[in-house]
Amino acid sequence: NMKNRVRQFWDHACKVYHIDVFLKRYKDFRCNPKMSSATIIALLILGIASRIKSFYQLERMGMNGELAKAIRGEKPSADTIAYSMVNGNVDELKDCNARIINKARCNKVFQNGTIKGWTVCGIDGTESYLTKTPCKGALGWSIRRRSDGKDEYYERAVALSYVGDGPHLLLGIERINPGEGELTVAIRLLREAASRNNRYSDIICADAYYAVAPFINEVSDQRKHVVIKIKQEDRALVKDMDGLVANREPDVTLHGVTPKGEKGKDGHGVNYDLKIWDEENFTSWDKVKAPLRCLKVWETRIATCRGKVTEETVTEYHIVTTVPKAIMKADIVWQIMHRRWDIENNIFCDLKQNWGFRHCYIHDPKAIEVWYTIFCIAINLMMLFLFRNLKWEKRKGTTTIEISRQILVSLITLNDPLPIPMSRAG
Predict the structure, then answer these.
(1) Confidence band (pLDDT; 50, 70, 90) for 426?
(2) Sequence-separated (6 or more) residues with CB below 8 Å from residue 133
(3) Per mean pLDDT, which range of 255-259, 289-293, 379-383 is the poorest?
(4) Exposure pattern of 120-159 as b/e (b: 16+ CB <10 Å)?
């Protein structure tokens, strides 16, 4: 029932993931606050789930009485929300997000893995906020010159997310602070994920930027495997691989396959023809601790429409991995490498276009870290609600946009307030 959608969402979050227990004990660092931190965090989670895309819009809804039926008591202003973010407890919020993911794993959300029985995470950098005039307190924003000669400022972050079969839960989004590089932040993000649950994933997949010894060694030290597409043709490993398989028939030849491991549809869509050469036990990568496996791939991408080939592209590249031949076939390594794009297509693009992640909510560096984590919590609760409570795979005709609209409508029209616990920071 659409009228009960927000209550369904909130009851699921409380009953299964105990978000009410977290809110009751959550403490931020404000002094003598008038507004409960539980109310603010709950309102932000509900706002993200219903795709309300600014603090100001939440404030106006409170002033107009649109939240009166859902949330008891006084509603926070945009400034109060921002002040709570500046003084937020990011460590407690990260612990909350980790508990949600751990509970999902214990509930066998990924009982069949995310790709062919393996639980796979993708890691990548992205731009989030974009503004022409950051406030004086904004530190660490990157600057670039636009085509019209004016400067624009943008935030950079690194995200770690499950890829493959859904739900695409976010393990974390970490801000790239002044003086840090993307690789440094990525390693920190991996260590934070491991410290809260060392079994969060089997495999980490990444693009060519992460094809460096410190990253590969960090994943290996966590007793996980890495899958990386490499572009540096001058690497000793690539030269060794090419020399080893020269004038040799490919180890794997496949026709009309897709990155999901399905047989492609004849005459429609995008299919791939593959030739893969596969060798392992390479030790020629300087400073990498583990022996590596290398796959040389000749990939023919064939796009067809109504039985006619519209585009045909041939690409040659290499994939490096620590997964031995004995436990993973070459075509599954290729699938994992391709599904890495899920973090770009299904996470970054979706968050920016549909969930307001591109909007600059706040400029303060500490508040941005807090907001990133609240965003992870809200998106994960929403994805788990869709996939587990609503059995998303059986509701193909209903979009996430429609469910969010139903949550927004029921948020305004609820008969009884939601059971949001009261707490005070300090």
Answers:
(1) very low
(2) 153
(3) 255-259
(4) bbbbbbbebbeeeebeeebebbeeeeeeeeeebbbbbbbb
* 100-111 CB burial, b ≥16 within 10 A, e <16: bbeebbeeebbe
The predicted pLDDT at position 152 comes to: 80
| pLDDT tier at 13, thresholds 50, 70, 90 | very high
Q: Residue 175 and residue 173: Cα distance in Å, rounded? A: 7
Tell me the C-alpha distance between 19 and 376, whole Å: 13
Q: Contact 240/284 with Cβ under 8 angstroms? A: yes
Instruction: Taking residues 105-134, report their average pLDDT.
Output: 88
User: Parallel, antiparallel, or unpaired for β 225-230 and 292-305?
Assistant: unpaired
- Tokens standing for residue 34: 């008038």
Q: Tell me how far CA of residue 221 lies from CA of 3, 107, 171, 207, 307, in angstroms.
A: 49, 27, 19, 20, 49
The string of DSSP codes covering 222-282 is TT-EEEEEE--TTSHHHHHHHHHHTT---SEEEEEE-TTSPBPPTTSEEEEEEEEEEEEEE
Please state the length of the chain: 426
SS3 per residue for 296-326: EEEEEEEEEECCEEEEEEEEEEEEEECCCHH
User: pLDDT > 90: what percent of the chain?
Assistant: 57
pTM (predicted TM-score): 0.91
Under 8 Å between Cβ of 230 and 208: yes
* pLDDT at residue 264 greater than cutoff 60: no
Amino acid at 176: I
Phi-psi region of 113 (alpha: psi -120 to 50; beta: other; left: phi over 0): left
Q: What b/e sequence results for 393-416 when a residue is b if at least 16 CB atoms lie within 10 Å of its CB, and e otherwise?
A: eeeeeeeeeebbebbbebbbebee
Q: At what angle do helices 365-384 and 37-49 cross, to 10 degrees?
A: 60
Q: Is 234 buried (19+), middle (13-18) or exposed (0-12) by CB count in 10 A?
A: exposed
| pLDDT level of residue 244 (50, 70, 90 thresholds) | very high
Neighbours of 261 (CB within 10 A): 13
Q: What is the pLDDT of residue 348?
A: 82
CA 108/CA 342 separation, integer angstroms: 21
| Cβ(318)–Cβ(294) below 8 Å | yes
**Distance linking the first and last C-alpha atoms of the chain:** 40
Distance CA 33, CA 210 (A): 44
Residue 175 to residue 147: CA distance in whole angstroms: 27
Provide the greatest CA pair distance for the chain: 76
Rounded to whole angstroms, the Cα distance separating 25 from 37 reads 10
